[in-house]
Amino acid sequence: NYETFVKMLYLEKYAGEKPFEGPVAMLISAFYQIPKSASKRQRKAMASHHIPPTTRPDIDNIAKIIMDALAGVAYEDDKQITSCSINKLYSEEPKVIVNVIGEVDPA
Predict the structure, then answer these.
(1) Peptide bond preceding 52: is omega within 30 degrees of 0, i.e. cis?
(2) Do strands 24-33 and 95-102 pair parallel, antiparallel, or not at all (unpaired)?
(3) Half-sphere CA count of 27, side-chain side, radius 13 A
(4) Using CA of residue 89, residue 91, residue 93, residue 26, what is the dihedral sign?
(5) How far apart, in whole angstroms, are the C-alpha atoms of residue 37 and residue 43?
(6) CA–CA separation, 46 vs 32, rounded Å?
(7) CB-CB contact of 28 with 62 (8 Å)
(8) Per-position pLDDT tens, the chain of length 107
(9) DSSP per-residue string spanning the chain
């Protein structure tokens, strides 16, 4: 399943890294394949992010699966996520890019 796949990729790339213990911010960019049926004009607009995808999965479902997959590996628990930004974009290559950033304690 996708959640296991995300966890596996994270563990492969960040083997030996300890999970964040404090608050974290998450940035998620989900890139969808540009449809083959798109005209040249549409493809250009999609590739330059002027036309975003309005297809499934919904933003909240993207967030949930990524947050759940990384709980226990990137951070201890998803309750630590204090901010999250999610973007759905088109690309020639479908992919998901996730950045987990430890927040600095102002004290």
Answers:
(1) no
(2) antiparallel
(3) 5
(4) negative
(5) 9
(6) 10
(7) yes
(8) 999 999 999 999 999 999 999 999 999 999 999 999 999 999 999 999 999 999 999 999 999 999 999 999 999 999 999 999 999 999 999 999 999 999 866 65
(9) -HHHHHHHHHHHHTTTPPPB-S-EEEEEEEEEEPPTTS-HHHHHHHHTTSS---PSSPHHHHHHHHHHHHBTTTBS-GGGEEEEEEEEEEESS-EEEEEEEEPPP--
Name the amino acid, one letter, at 84: C
Token readout for 67 is 């947050």
Tell me, what's the pLDDT at 103?
Answer: 80
- Predicted pLDDT at 18: 94
